[in-house]
Amino acid sequence: MGDPLPIFLMVALALLFGLLVMAATAILGPKKPTPEKLAPYECGIQEIQAPKRRFPVKYLLTGMLFIAFDIEIVSLYPLAVLLKDQLKTLGLIELLIFFVILMIGYIYVWRKGAFTWE
Amino acid sequence: MPDTTPTWLLVVASLVKSAILIVILLTIFAYMTWIERRVVARIQGRLGPNRAGPFGALQPLADAIKMAFKEQIIPAQAYKAIYLIAPVISVVVALSAFAVVPIGNSWTPGHPSVWDPWVGDINVGLLWILSISSLAVYGIVLGGWSSGNRYSLLGSLRSAAQMISYETSLGLALSGTLMWAGTLSMVSIVRQQTLQGQGIWFIVAQPLGFLIYIIAAVAEVNRAPFDLPEAEQELTAGYLTEYSGLRWSLYQMAEYINMITVSSVATTLFFGGWSFFGLERIPGLSIVIFAVKVAFFLFLFIWLRATLPRIRYDRLMRLGWQFLLPLAVLNAVVTAACVALGLPWWVNGLIGLAIIVAVLAITWQRSRQTRFAISKTGAELLPPSVRLVKSIEPELGLVNGGETAVAGVERQQALLQDGRVQV
């Protein structure tokens, strides 16, 4: 059990499918571009200036919190898998210590207002 | 899988099975669009598409042909390469995640073969699904960012923030089931739930974990009521705004296939996958059982969309971080205690149910408070956010401290008739 080869073959097939669709759509459709068609869609209003492609820093904060929490949760998985048959009470104690530390950080960012959106 | 299997047979079997699986997924996607339109129409008292073929059953085909022959526009402001590759990322990721899902029992139980109805049974199956579906956010963010459109950019940012916010709760909710199953392989998780394994579906031990998972999963695949990335009233179509034809279809495809994947994960982890009280010994029947269970969840998605209004963005983030995440941590701790101390499954299930009831009671109590405030004179007041006359209060020097909402409306109408206040 555990041969990853079939899964990579499926990824390759999926990639092939995606590229085929993109190729098909490039060949099949008509091509009559006009400047109006190529303008960004703004509900018919002329664009005043191009969007900056920058984003509020609030999203970065969410991203950093995600990294902190999600990576720790994924590192919990091995413990969860081994808990029943091998770790038992020792595992439970480890898990509780783990969560206490995680929750201290969680309460800190909550008090700092990282979860409040205007 | 026996080690005697030659590699070429494995490759051939995997390619054939993958191709069949991709075709099945695409067919389900096509018919989900039609079923969804019909069901939502029926719920809203309309007919839905019923012209193309019997009951409109050929509608997906007509849509596909129309999409294929549409003109493809690449906006002048777009970063061309990223704009073109983003939908491919979305659909490849969606299809790949399904590779580890077992859709039925092995053909001859006890004798594994390369033709068993799953593409790959790796011992980190669930991790594969989680990690691959995290990549889905790239397709959306890159597509929205490279379009060169404000709506797209905003939609994709919202989507990214939403997906990563709910992924933490999703992962934690699943860890409870992992503690009971003691394995990450999807096939072994299902075997644990058959009569030969522990004999229970993990939903009975994990009711709270299941609820958290299903809420987080709806948010994770950007479906209503969490479909803010494509909130059409504010963002036209979010990250999809600048896409047309089959490129747009690829995004839709990814969304629906992700729906099928999260439904399959819910089925596999909480509802016993292809097992049904021993009936799964007939391999053909096990696939039907799995399909019925997944269909139930897919219907749930449509039902939710037709029923619930879209949630506001700040509330969405609050629900994810301040409500679901602590609950998921609580569930993980309770489950760990039950599993580590060797308590039976029903103890865990009862504690989970008790927590659900307590949370519902508290939420109901608090929602009553936000709906009506009781003033000192005992009259019911609307909360400040709903009061109608608040904005014109200061310059008129009027105070509406003790009056009821109805009185407030009447007074405002009187002011309007006097001509003292201009609307």
Automatic annotation (TrEMBL), chain A:
Subcellular localization(s) per the UniProt record: Cell membrane; Membrane
EC class: translocase
Catalysed reactions, as listed in the record: a quinone + NADH + 5 H(+)(in) = a quinol + NAD(+) + 4 H(+)(out)
InterPro entries (alphabetical): NADH_UbQ/plastoQ_OxRdtase_su3, NDAH_ubi_oxred_su3_sf
Database matches in Pfam families: Oxidored_q4
Keyword line: Cell membrane, Membrane, NAD, Quinone, Translocase, Transmembrane, Transmembrane helix, Transport
Domain of life where this protein originates: Bacteria
Main subcellular location of this protein, as a coarse class: membrane
UniProt GO cellular component terms: NADH dehydrogenase complex; plasma membrane
Coiled coil regions in record: none
Molecular functions (GO terms): NADH dehydrogenase (ubiquinone) activity; quinone binding
UniProt-listed Enzyme Commission number(s): 7.1.1.-
Transmembrane segments: 6-28, 59-83, 89-109
Membrane topology: Multi-pass membrane protein
Family under the similarity heading: Belongs to the complex I subunit 3 family.
Role of this protein: NDH-1 shuttles electrons from NADH, via FMN and iron-sulfur (Fe-S) centers, to quinones in the respiratory chain.
Name of this chain's protein: NADH-quinone oxidoreductase subunit
TrEMBL record, chain B:
Organism annotation: Thermogemmatispora aurantia
Membrane-related topology note: Multi-pass membrane protein
Gene Ontology molecular functions: NADH dehydrogenase activity; oxidoreductase activity, acting on NAD(P)H, quinone or similar compound as acceptor; quinone binding
PANTHER family per the UniProt record, alphabetical: NADH DEHYDROGENASE SUBUNIT 1, NADH-UBIQUINONE OXIDOREDUCTASE CHAIN 1
Gene Ontology CC terms, in alphabetical order: plasma membrane
Role according to the record: NDH-1 shuttles electrons from NADH, via FMN and iron-sulfur (Fe-S) centers, to quinones in the respiratory chain. The immediate electron acceptor for the enzyme in this species is believed to be ubiquinone. Couples the redox reaction to proton translocation (for every two electrons transferred, four hydrogen ions are translocated across the cytoplasmic membrane), and thus conserves the redox energy in a proton gradient. This subunit may bind ubiquinone.
The organism's place on the tree of life at top rank: Bacteria
Keywords: Cell membrane, Membrane, NAD, Quinone, Translocase, Transmembrane, Transmembrane helix, Ubiquinone
InterPro entries named in the record: NADH_UbQ_OxRdtase_su1/FPO, NADH_UbQ_OxRdtase_su1_CS
Entry EC no(s): 7.1.1.-
Reactions the enzyme catalyzes: a quinone + NADH + 5 H(+)(in) = a quinol + NAD(+) + 4 H(+)(out)
PROSITE patterns: COMPLEX1_ND1_1, COMPLEX1_ND1_2
Subunit structure: NDH-1 is composed of 14 different subunits. Subunits NuoA, H, J, K, L, M, N constitute the membrane sector of the complex.
Pfam families given in the database record: NADHdh
Biological processes per GO annotation: aerobic respiration
Protein name according to UniProt: NADH-quinone oxidoreductase subunit H
Cellular compartments annotated: Cell membrane; Membrane
Similarity remark: Belongs to the complex I subunit 1 family.
Transmembrane residue ranges: 6-32, 81-104, 124-145, 166-187, 199-219, 256-276, 282-304, 316-337, 343-364
